[in-house]
Amino acid sequence: MQATAARAPGRGSSREFESTVLAVEPIMGDAILLTVGAPPSLVERLLPGQFFNVACRFPGSFDPLLRRPYSVYRADREKSSLTFLVRPFGRGSAWLAKRAPGETLDMLGPLGNWYAIPPRSQRLLMLAGGVGVAPLVMLSDDAAAQGLDIVFVMGAADEHGLLPASELRGSIEYLVATDDGSRGHRGLATEIISDYVAWADQIYACGPEPMYRTLRAVADPLRIHRRPKVQISVERGMACGLGACLGCVVETRRGMIASCVRGPVFDLDEVVI
Amino acid sequence: MQATAARAPGRGSSREFESTVLAVEPIMGDAILLTVGAPPSLVERLLPGQFFNVACRFPGSFDPLLRRPYSVYRADREKSSLTFLVRPFGRGSAWLAKRAPGETLDMLGPLGNWYAIPPRSQRLLMLAGGVGVAPLVMLSDDAAAQGLDIVFVMGAADEHGLLPASELRGSIEYLVATDDGSRGHRGLATEIISDYVAWADQIYACGPEPMYRTLRAVADPLRIHRRPKVQISVERGMACGLGACLGCVVETRRGMIASCVRGPVFDLDEVVI
Amino acid sequence: MSAVATPDVSVDLAPRNPRELRLRNPIIAASGCFGYGEEYAGVIDIQRLGAFVSKGITPERRSGNPMPRIVESPAGMLNAIGLQNPGIHGFVKKYPALWELWTVPAIVNISAETVEDYAMMAAILDEQPGLAGIEINVSCPNIARGGYCFGWDPEMSAEVTRAVRDVTTLPLIVKLSPGAADIISVALAVEEAGADAISLINTIVGMAIDVRARKPLLANHTGGVSGPAIKPIAVRMVYQTAAAVRVPVIGMGGIMSLGDALEFFLAGASAVQIGTAIFVDPGLPIRLIDELSRWLDNEGFASLDQIVGIANEGFRLGERHVLTAWEAAGA
Amino acid sequence: MSAVATPDVSVDLAPRNPRELRLRNPIIAASGCFGYGEEYAGVIDIQRLGAFVSKGITPERRSGNPMPRIVESPAGMLNAIGLQNPGIHGFVKKYPALWELWTVPAIVNISAETVEDYAMMAAILDEQPGLAGIEINVSCPNIARGGYCFGWDPEMSAEVTRAVRDVTTLPLIVKLSPGAADIISVALAVEEAGADAISLINTIVGMAIDVRARKPLLANHTGGVSGPAIKPIAVRMVYQTAAAVRVPVIGMGGIMSLGDALEFFLAGASAVQIGTAIFVDPGLPIRLIDELSRWLDNEGFASLDQIVGIANEGFRLGERHVLTAWEAAGA
Ligand SMILES: Cc1cc2nc3c(=O)[nH]c(=O)nc-3n(C[C@H](O)[C@H](O)[C@H](O)COP(=O)(O)OP(=O)(O)OC[C@H]3O[C@@H](n4cnc5c(N)ncnc54)[C@H](O)[C@@H]3O)c2cc1C
Ligand SMILES: Cc1cc2nc3c(=O)[nH]c(=O)nc-3n(C[C@H](O)[C@H](O)[C@H](O)COP(=O)(O)OP(=O)(O)OC[C@H]3O[C@@H](n4cnc5c(N)ncnc54)[C@H](O)[C@@H]3O)c2cc1C
Ligand SMILES: Cc1cc2nc3c(=O)[nH]c(=O)nc-3n(C[C@H](O)[C@H](O)[C@H](O)COP(=O)(O)O)c2cc1C
Ligand SMILES: Cc1cc2nc3c(=O)[nH]c(=O)nc-3n(C[C@H](O)[C@H](O)[C@H](O)COP(=O)(O)O)c2cc1C
Ligand code: FES
Ligand code: FES
Fold first, then answer.
1. CA of D331 to the centre of ligand 5 (A)
2. Does the predicted model carry a pTM greater than 0.90?
3. Range list of β-strands (E), C58-181
4. Is B248 in the pocket of ligand 6 (CB under 6 A)?
5. Under CATH, domain D11-328 is a member of which superfamily?
């Protein structure tokens, strides 16, 4: 009768699993890297940009009620683990950021589509805004392992909010911008990408929506016939994560589309933002 | 705007304080002893039978909403700490039982009245049922320090549910009963108290209500002019702990009385149970 | 934890209807929380469910409300999806044929702003394969009555029920709105008008304000509250309604565990629907089927019937018992 | 964190009444959650409060309902205290004289089962010292109308208001019941009948079943739900009501933080009451006074007035704006 009974094995669904927290390390100021165990078959098949809906409450408590989506920051196929980047912000993330190794988390996923690397792509530009860097780290890991050329540009409020260069593979060119100029370019990340827009054959972005609007304004005049393609990951509040509630829709040229199943990755030219 | 803001210093009330968890140790099967720091002036004045209303949820979560009352099991005036005995049962106690040293708890108290040791009392009989043992341990600590004679009788389902004898001062006579006979008398604790009822000049009890009814049935024929007096601690669900909501009343000969301020300790002869 | 549990948990939710609405178990996925079934087909064994109810279908295609459409609330959520759906014509092109291939009973939830539109949809559904029944959502504004909600008024709710009853022999569930001041009168009116069963509660109208932006958080301003927060209100309304009517009552509102589902059964529900919990815990409905059988077995009940309404004196006495005055006011 | 915050947070809750109900700040302790003030006198600095409302007083002494009277619910609680109180005659012997010594305005909450009894109590209160106003609790069963709750019906609510208005010049707050299907009609009716202000919401009727004992958990069967769980419903009702009436609206229901209180102000409340939160966090009302001033200051507002209703288009336009159809139904 206790809600804790819901933790029993055999949760009745094929997409949920209990994962054990393996490590919690600080990163990017007040954020953390949270590493959890996951079934090998899952880690194996995971693609960059996919996410998990995590229950962020003590078992038996119904508040906060909804799961929170977190993109995978890094997948370690050898250790069969997943790492998430969590910035404590509101109730769910503050709870997550307080977890300790050995505790278990209730995960639903993997969910959503992914950043595609089309065949013959060789030059990738990645643009990260703040905590939006998470899925691009996994994408850059995979792309670097395939030997592709990567320029990774990140913007943050100040130097503390930047991803440490050591988190990216050595072959990656890493440029940064900060609002206060404490490191790299003073200003927006979108101000230092012009040269690379023409160079790239794919652009990947993850950050707040205003960044996408600026990106569009900066990149569009430099793109010819909408090339290179721009793949963005959108952030919407979610309930089900499975396309059932229609609470997470994104307005696109094809109508209102559930971002949890046919996103979170969209073609910038398709979405109305 | 975040509920966590409510944690800021200066909580606006004189009866609340943040305490730091100092130790968590297992006891009596699945229960724990939870030791927390408290202001010296508070620990100094605390009386046995008083309790604290503890917030049993992650800051920012509103579920479970209400504080849980816990009697003080032991007060250490030197270390300025309080120890509580918590049996994980439902949502609040399960949360409490998972706390770790260094975490903070939001306490409201001390609340309620206390077990009185009238002047000239010399022979005390204490009767504990299960987790109800908590306030009687503090009472026995105080009484033993005053050099009084104490017979402490405890009942539990089985030997794992019994208080270890080492938790009581050396001078105390400790008798036990278990439902399954795994230790001491097989049966109810009330079955082994007859000899001591006549001996005692005060009787103190804490346990479930059926125990009080049995105690009354056993003790009444042995008492003369309602002597020795029987002081019991009642358990009622609580909201405010301060006599304002009238949710915790006990029916007495004098009407419906708030057990949080004019209890939890009542004269057995006064209450209608 | 016995492997094989034997109690009879089947239930007929349309005993007055020759077509019956017989479910193998009383666990139903609620409207708007389970899409059209297919969304969960790869996640849980949907064929094991007692039944599922589709997202609400409307006369015309709707693209729904602007975003944001959902926001969390204490132990609950607010939604203002705005009935995004393909419309009755888009719906019948795809789903009846799909559902015909399934063994799980599929119930269609319908919403409209006029009595005629409800009847129009029901007439179309009557001819479709693969449908086990219709659930009428009366928590919709009645355009002819200046937008006053159908479900708040016994007569308006009955009118919709009658109009639908006239055009279809499909089992008919009427889903009540908790906004009605007097839920019992509405329940009695729709029973009289031909409802085979009554389900309740729909979401309760609520709102949240974005303090930083100084405006309502939902683009639609208000939304419906669902989840554990509304459970006590739902249990009370089921308790009141189940004692008042003779048709089966389907209870819902905040069910998150077996204990919650049992509260509804004991209050008088013959079946339960699971809504918001599916988002949080998709495996719950399937677990509930097993846990319910096991609980009945452990407690010595041979069938679900034996527990329906046993916490409800009015239900037991068959007395159309209405709560006493102070009870109903919640003093 | 500035030490001295300057914004004007005072408010007159009875602008139509020559006697005024002027509070230094808009933070009020709610009825039933603050006893008679004295219970919290040693715990918080009660004299700093904008005001407090007493436990509900009835014509006769009541010993209240049997136990259990309270039970927790998800992010909330259910209570069925049953108005344990000394009755109007016992009340006037003690509290008016005590409160006269205090600087904090004291409001008396009254409950009765007949219109005559409400008026009888108000006439007695009219002669007492130490009272800043009366709050009429209309969430009570009307014995003359077979127990139908006064507060569910505009006419019945207005009748009580008129009867009380006729016998006292004290500032009069009418506290609405969320059980009314059409809260706006009730609000307009009591405004018309002479209410100086309107407060809402009272608790929502709910219930919980003890699955082990197979009966309702509360001895009274049902109780009133309060706390964060009901906040979205309360905010919505305040938003609707504040836009419809011209008298000040006092909002309450689940306020646990400054953010929650601001939701009510932005929705149109001129003051707020804190109920259940006091049990959980007794220092909250005092903290809110300081936090509110600081917030107004930081955001550049010179007075509380400037934020009342700014999230509410109908309120801003003075337009007696009723929610559009689909909004009101919570689609
Ligand atoms: C596909 C996807 C992937 C995501 N990946 C990550 C990730 O890798 N790392 C990560 O830290 N977060 C990620 N998020 C965001 C994450 O799901 C939570 O929204 C975030 O952690 C805040 O949740 P909370 O419970 O702490 O805040 P809440 O208590 O839910 O929010 C508090 C308030 O802030 C608002 N709010 C919520 N999130 C934001 C925001 N990001 N910016 C501004 N306002 C906000 C809410 O509307 C609410 O009013 C992702 C979201 C999506 C949809
Ligand atoms: C004055 C006082 C002193 C107390 N001292 C202690 C103490 O020292 N140690 C301790 O462990 N507890 C003590 N309690 C009990 C404690 O306050 C909680 O009630 C207990 O920990 C269970 O809370 P929960 O949140 O885990 O359960 P909940 O989730 O609140 O309860 C789950 C269910 O069990 C029921 N329930 C709650 N408590 C009990 C119970 N004790 N027996 C049977 N059913 C119950 C509830 O009604 C509910 O239906 C004391 C209570 C009072 C009033
Ligand atoms: C996102 C969402 C969408 C809903 N859509 C519908 C709907 O289309 N038709 C309907 O009758 N009820 C709808 N409901 C109401 C649910 O079916 C159910 O009555 C309500 O949510 C209470 O149950 P719960 O607390 O278990 O969710 C919806 C609920 C949610 C949360
Ligand atoms: C224990 C309790 C007793 C209450 N008693 C009364 C009462 O006597 N009169 C009244 O008008 N409201 C009473 N209320 C309702 C509150 O004043 C308030 O309207 C309601 O609880 C919603 O606010 P909250 O969520 O902040 O508690 C009571 C509420 C509680 C929790
Ligand atoms: S979160 Fe439910 S459809 Fe995407
Ligand atoms: S808990 Fe409120 S009066 Fe005792």
1. 17
2. yes
3. 70-73, 76-79, 106-110, 133-137, 141-142, 148-149, 172-175
4. yes
5. Aldolase class I (3.20.20.70)
